[in-house]
Amino acid sequence: MSKDLLTIRNKVGVFVIFAAFLSAMMGLVFVDVVWMSDEVHEASFTEITQEILLAVITFLFLYHARGPIEQRPVRILVAGFFACMLIRELDFLFDKISHGCWFWFALAVTAASVIAALRHPRFLISGLADFMRHPAWGMMMAGMLTILVFSRLFGMHELWQHLMPGDYNRIVKNMAEEGSELLGYTLCLFATLGYLFSDRVK
User: Fold this and answer.
1) In the 8-state DSSP scheme, what is residue 184?
2) Contacts of 41 (CB under 8 A, 6+ apart)
3) Is the pLDDT of residue 200 over 60?
């Protein structure tokens, strides 16, 4: 098989796998709303899957931080960033200790990540630039924009109250917001796999 045909086969195969995985992720929202008849709350399949995806992304970046030293600082920082997002998603558990205390745990993880990354400061900027030049950066950015911008704006109470005047249903709002977040986390996972394992799918 020629190199071009091999590349096409590999890329199409990755697309099919990602499409199937994304379909399964979106199916969780359907299960939560239709079969479980809940409001996509903290104990829903959707929310739990979001937390699992964040944990997997964090683990992968931490694990691969043991690799080339020139990539170590940026991978530690990215792992710390997603670990902080995981802590934020688990705020309902930290609230059992003290309301809002998730912030202090996230701050501690941030400090630890920055200190660890600064052990090799000369590789920090170059490693970050390499990460942003990687083809996976586009998908990572799309995922982050979906999570941090789109889902927040799309899930505003005011928007859904105007869409459903006199018959506001919070379940619909939650489904839209959490479904958008799940999409964003899935894109971030795809980007993580593309960045860390790109040599295997060329």
Assistant:
1) H
2) 47, 174
3) no
Residue 82 near residue 110, CB atoms below 8 Å? no
The token pair that represents 53 in the structure block: 């995806």
For residue 181, give both structure tokens: 């977040």
- Is the distance from CB of 51 to CB of 89 less than 8 angstroms? yes
The C-alpha atoms of residue 9 and residue 14 are separated, in whole angstroms, by: 9
Task: Provide the residue range defining the domain that includes 16.
Answer: 3-200
Question: Which contacts qualify for 143-149: CB closer than 8 Å, 24 or more apart?
Answer: 143/183, 143/184, 143/185, 143/186, 143/187, 143/188, 143/190, 143/191, 144/184, 144/188, 145/184, 146/180, 146/181, 146/183, 146/184, 146/187, 147/85, 147/180, 147/181, 147/184, 147/185, 147/188, 148/184
Contact 25, 182 (CB under 8 A): yes
User: How many whole angstroms separate alpha carbon 32 and alpha carbon 195?
Assistant: 31
User: How many domains does the structure of the chain reveal?
Assistant: 1
Q: How far is CA 149 from CA 78, 146, 174, 188, in A?
A: 19, 6, 16, 14
Residue tagged 């199937």 (tokens): 20
CA torsion, points 57, 62, 67, 71, in degrees to nearest 10?
80
The phi-psi region of residue 134 (left if phi > 0; otherwise alpha if psi is between -120 and 50; otherwise beta) is beta
pLDDT in tens, 178-187: 889 999 999 9
pTM of this prediction exceeds 0.70: yes
> Contact 86/54 with Cβ under 8 angstroms?
yes
